[in-house]
Specification:
- The protein is an alpha/beta fold and 202 residues long.
- It has one domain: P-loop containing nucleotide triphosphate hydrolases (Rossmann fold, 3-Layer(aba) Sandwich).
- It is 35% helix and 22% strand.
- The chain is built from 7 helices and 9 strands; from the N terminus they run βαββαββαβαβαβαβα.
- It has helices spanning 14-25, 40-47, 68-75, 114-117, 132-146, 161-171, 187-198, and strands spanning 2-7, 28-30, 33-35, 55-56, 60-62, 93-100, 120-127, 150-156, 175-179.
- Helix 5 (132-146) links the parallel strand 7 and strand 8.
- The longest helix is centred in the last third of the chain and has 15 residues, at 132-146.
- The relative contact order is 0.20.
Length: 202
Protein backbone atom coordinates (compact mmCIF):
# COMPACT_ATOMS: atom_id res chain seq x y z
CA UNK A 1 0.00 0.00 0.00
CA UNK A 2 1.18 3.53 -0.75
CA UNK A 3 0.55 6.16 1.92
CA UNK A 4 0.88 9.84 1.02
CA UNK A 5 1.80 12.00 4.01
CA UNK A 6 0.56 15.54 3.56
CA UNK A 7 -0.29 18.36 5.92
CA UNK A 8 -2.16 21.61 6.42
CA UNK A 9 1.00 23.61 5.75
CA UNK A 10 4.77 23.78 5.90
CA UNK A 11 6.54 22.58 9.07
CA UNK A 12 3.45 20.75 10.29
CA UNK A 13 5.37 17.57 11.10
CA UNK A 14 5.25 15.51 7.89
CA UNK A 15 8.83 14.28 8.21
CA UNK A 16 8.41 13.13 11.81
CA UNK A 17 5.13 11.41 10.97
CA UNK A 18 6.73 9.81 7.92
CA UNK A 19 9.49 8.42 10.14
CA UNK A 20 6.91 7.06 12.60
CA UNK A 21 4.95 5.38 9.80
CA UNK A 22 8.11 3.99 8.21
CA UNK A 23 9.23 2.55 11.54
CA UNK A 24 5.82 1.14 12.45
CA UNK A 25 5.13 -0.52 9.11
CA UNK A 26 8.75 -1.44 8.33
CA UNK A 27 7.89 0.41 5.15
CA UNK A 28 10.02 1.97 2.44
CA UNK A 29 10.26 5.76 2.24
CA UNK A 30 10.30 8.15 -0.68
CA UNK A 31 10.13 11.94 -0.96
CA UNK A 32 9.49 12.67 -4.65
CA UNK A 33 10.33 16.38 -4.46
CA UNK A 34 12.90 17.96 -2.14
CA UNK A 35 13.54 21.69 -2.13
CA UNK A 36 16.72 22.70 -0.33
CA UNK A 37 18.69 21.17 2.50
CA UNK A 38 18.65 19.24 4.78
CA UNK A 39 17.14 16.37 2.82
CA UNK A 40 14.13 14.90 4.56
CA UNK A 41 15.17 11.47 3.30
CA UNK A 42 18.32 11.63 5.41
CA UNK A 43 16.35 12.86 8.42
CA UNK A 44 13.91 9.96 8.21
CA UNK A 45 16.76 7.49 7.64
CA UNK A 46 18.44 8.74 10.82
CA UNK A 47 15.26 8.20 12.87
CA UNK A 48 14.31 4.70 11.72
CA UNK A 49 15.74 1.65 13.48
CA UNK A 50 14.28 -1.30 11.57
CA UNK A 51 16.58 -2.99 9.09
CA UNK A 52 13.98 -3.61 6.38
CA UNK A 53 13.16 -0.07 5.24
CA UNK A 54 14.66 1.20 2.00
CA UNK A 55 15.09 4.90 1.22
CA UNK A 56 14.72 5.98 -2.38
CA UNK A 57 16.19 8.92 -4.25
CA UNK A 58 14.07 11.95 -5.01
CA UNK A 59 12.58 12.38 -8.46
CA UNK A 60 13.44 16.09 -8.19
CA UNK A 61 16.20 17.29 -5.87
CA UNK A 62 16.12 21.09 -5.95
CA UNK A 63 18.68 23.47 -4.48
CA UNK A 64 16.49 26.35 -3.34
CA UNK A 65 14.37 26.09 -0.15
CA UNK A 66 11.16 27.37 -1.73
CA UNK A 67 7.89 26.18 -3.21
CA UNK A 68 8.71 23.37 -5.68
CA UNK A 69 7.55 25.37 -8.70
CA UNK A 70 9.70 28.36 -7.70
CA UNK A 71 12.73 26.25 -6.76
CA UNK A 72 12.48 24.39 -10.05
CA UNK A 73 12.35 27.63 -12.03
CA UNK A 74 15.43 28.94 -10.21
CA UNK A 75 17.23 25.65 -10.92
CA UNK A 76 16.22 25.79 -14.58
CA UNK A 77 14.13 22.62 -14.53
CA UNK A 78 10.43 21.88 -14.89
CA UNK A 79 8.59 19.50 -12.61
CA UNK A 80 6.22 17.24 -14.51
CA UNK A 81 4.06 14.59 -12.89
CA UNK A 82 4.92 12.11 -15.64
CA UNK A 83 8.54 12.18 -14.45
CA UNK A 84 7.55 11.32 -10.86
CA UNK A 85 7.64 7.53 -11.07
CA UNK A 86 7.27 5.59 -7.80
CA UNK A 87 9.99 3.10 -6.93
CA UNK A 88 9.21 -0.59 -7.21
CA UNK A 89 8.79 -1.92 -3.69
CA UNK A 90 7.39 -5.11 -2.17
CA UNK A 91 6.66 -3.29 1.09
CA UNK A 92 4.34 -0.47 2.07
CA UNK A 93 5.67 2.82 0.71
CA UNK A 94 5.56 6.05 2.70
CA UNK A 95 5.50 9.02 0.33
CA UNK A 96 6.16 12.42 1.87
CA UNK A 97 4.72 15.47 0.17
CA UNK A 98 6.06 19.03 0.22
CA UNK A 99 4.25 21.76 2.13
CA UNK A 100 0.45 21.65 2.03
CA UNK A 101 -1.93 20.08 -0.47
CA UNK A 102 -2.20 23.12 -2.76
CA UNK A 103 1.51 23.86 -3.07
CA UNK A 104 2.20 24.24 -6.81
CA UNK A 105 4.52 21.91 -8.69
CA UNK A 106 4.27 23.93 -11.89
CA UNK A 107 1.72 26.23 -13.53
CA UNK A 108 -0.88 23.46 -13.74
CA UNK A 109 -0.32 20.89 -10.99
CA UNK A 110 -0.27 20.94 -7.20
CA UNK A 111 0.97 18.49 -4.57
CA UNK A 112 -2.46 16.90 -4.21
CA UNK A 113 -2.39 15.87 -7.88
CA UNK A 114 0.30 13.34 -6.96
CA UNK A 115 -2.15 11.25 -4.88
CA UNK A 116 -4.02 9.53 -7.74
CA UNK A 117 -0.87 9.45 -9.88
CA UNK A 118 0.88 7.45 -7.14
CA UNK A 119 -2.21 5.40 -6.24
CA UNK A 120 -1.90 6.41 -2.58
CA UNK A 121 -4.06 6.77 0.50
CA UNK A 122 -3.64 10.04 2.43
CA UNK A 123 -2.41 10.45 5.98
CA UNK A 124 -3.12 14.04 6.98
CA UNK A 125 -0.96 15.85 9.55
CA UNK A 126 -2.45 18.78 11.46
CA UNK A 127 -0.48 20.87 13.92
CA UNK A 128 -2.61 22.96 16.26
CA UNK A 129 -2.27 26.73 16.40
CA UNK A 130 -4.54 29.76 16.14
CA UNK A 131 -6.12 29.35 12.72
CA UNK A 132 -5.36 25.65 12.30
CA UNK A 133 -9.03 24.64 12.48
CA UNK A 134 -9.70 26.71 9.37
CA UNK A 135 -6.60 25.40 7.61
CA UNK A 136 -7.41 21.78 8.48
CA UNK A 137 -11.06 22.00 7.41
CA UNK A 138 -10.15 23.75 4.16
CA UNK A 139 -7.58 21.03 3.45
CA UNK A 140 -10.16 18.34 4.17
CA UNK A 141 -12.70 20.03 1.89
CA UNK A 142 -10.27 20.05 -1.02
CA UNK A 143 -9.39 16.38 -0.47
CA UNK A 144 -13.07 15.41 -0.21
CA UNK A 145 -13.97 17.37 -3.33
CA UNK A 146 -11.62 15.12 -5.26
CA UNK A 147 -12.86 11.92 -3.66
CA UNK A 148 -9.44 10.83 -2.43
CA UNK A 149 -9.15 8.16 0.26
CA UNK A 150 -7.92 9.30 3.69
CA UNK A 151 -6.54 6.80 6.20
CA UNK A 152 -6.85 9.28 9.04
CA UNK A 153 -5.43 12.34 10.73
CA UNK A 154 -2.44 12.73 13.02
CA UNK A 155 -2.25 15.72 15.35
CA UNK A 156 1.23 17.05 16.02
CA UNK A 157 2.49 19.35 18.76
CA UNK A 158 0.81 21.01 21.75
CA UNK A 159 -2.72 19.68 22.05
CA UNK A 160 -6.00 21.55 22.06
CA UNK A 161 -8.89 19.29 23.02
CA UNK A 162 -11.63 21.48 21.58
CA UNK A 163 -9.79 22.08 18.31
CA UNK A 164 -9.18 18.36 17.93
CA UNK A 165 -12.83 17.55 18.71
CA UNK A 166 -14.29 19.95 16.16
CA UNK A 167 -11.79 18.94 13.46
CA UNK A 168 -12.65 15.26 13.88
CA UNK A 169 -16.37 16.04 13.98
CA UNK A 170 -16.39 18.24 10.88
CA UNK A 171 -14.03 16.12 8.78
CA UNK A 172 -15.27 12.71 9.85
CA UNK A 173 -11.66 11.54 9.82
CA UNK A 174 -10.33 9.00 12.27
CA UNK A 175 -7.59 10.13 14.65
CA UNK A 176 -4.65 7.80 14.16
CA UNK A 177 -2.22 9.36 16.62
CA UNK A 178 -1.41 12.40 18.68
CA UNK A 179 2.26 13.41 18.75
CA UNK A 180 3.10 15.60 21.71
CA UNK A 181 5.55 18.50 21.72
CA UNK A 182 8.86 16.73 22.29
CA UNK A 183 11.97 18.51 23.53
CA UNK A 184 14.06 16.23 21.32
CA UNK A 185 13.25 13.99 18.37
CA UNK A 186 15.34 10.84 18.15
CA UNK A 187 15.03 7.14 17.37
CA UNK A 188 13.55 6.33 20.77
CA UNK A 189 10.81 8.96 20.33
CA UNK A 190 9.98 7.66 16.86
CA UNK A 191 9.87 4.08 18.14
CA UNK A 192 7.59 5.10 21.02
CA UNK A 193 5.05 6.67 18.70
CA UNK A 194 5.36 3.82 16.21
CA UNK A 195 4.31 1.43 18.97
CA UNK A 196 1.36 3.67 19.88
CA UNK A 197 0.26 3.94 16.27
CA UNK A 198 0.39 0.18 15.77
CA UNK A 199 -2.36 -0.31 18.36
CA UNK A 200 -4.98 1.52 16.24
CA UNK A 201 -3.77 0.80 12.72
CA UNK A 202 -5.79 -1.61 10.62
Amino acid sequence: MNYFVTAIGTDSGKTLVSAILTEMLHADYWKPIQSGEPRDTETVRSLVTNAQSQFYREAFLLKTPASPHAAARIDGVEITIDHIIPPVSNRDLIIEGAGGVMVPLNDQDVILDLVPHLNAEIVLVSNLYLGSINHTLLTAEVIKSRGYQVKGIIFNGPGNEESERIILLRTGYRQLLKVEQESEVNKDIVKKYAEKLSTCWD
